[in-house]
Amino acid sequence: MSAHLHRAQPYALALFRIVVGLLFACHGAASLFGVLGGARGGGSIPAGTWPGWYAAVIQLIGGILVALGLGTRIAALISSGSMAYAYFSVHQSGGLFPLQNGGEPSAVYSWVFLLLVFTGPGAFALDRLFTSRPPNRQDQNHTTEQSSPVAV
User: Rounded to an integer, what distance in angstroms lies between the CA atom of residue 49 and that of residue 136?
Assistant: First the structure.
């Protein structure tokens, strides 16, 4: 069963990346354009307002790039940093734990995007169209047995 799971890993990671990216982009669209319930339940954030408007731009653009798998690691790093900043500058003063201070979405997005920085985009990423090297694959011949030295 683990062999099946191992083969499915890039596709599961791609699905994870796409869903998270779309959800993040929806947050940005809601804040920028007042759609989907708007920012904090109504309206939009005025253009240029620090830090909300800039965070919303990062959410929209970063979310789209992550969902498409285009510049995934850079977009995820910027998005992760943006959410860490949001957590520590806006939420943390309201309490020690994310559930107390309303910063749970910021904390979760920050860690999720940091994970994508290290895992990469998985399958179905547009990054693959713009690179000449083959996708990063783990060693196909890897086994759990110790390999014996070869005499030459």
Answer: 40
What type of residue is 39? Answer: A
d(CA 115, CA 112): 5
Cα separation, 115 vs 118, in Å, equals 5
The 10 Å Cβ neighbour count of residue 4 is 8
Q: Where are the domains of the chain?
A: 19-126
Phi, psi at 19, each rounded to 5°: -65, -50
Question: What does the pLDDT look like over 49-86, one tens digit per residue?
Answer: 888 899 999 999 999 999 999 999 999 999 999 999 99
| 3-class SS string, 17-33 | HHHHHHHHHHHHHHHHH
Residue 134 CA to chain centroid, in angstroms?
Answer: 23
pTM of the complete model: 0.80
Phi/psi region, residue 41 (left: phi>0; alpha: psi -120 to 50; beta: rest), is left
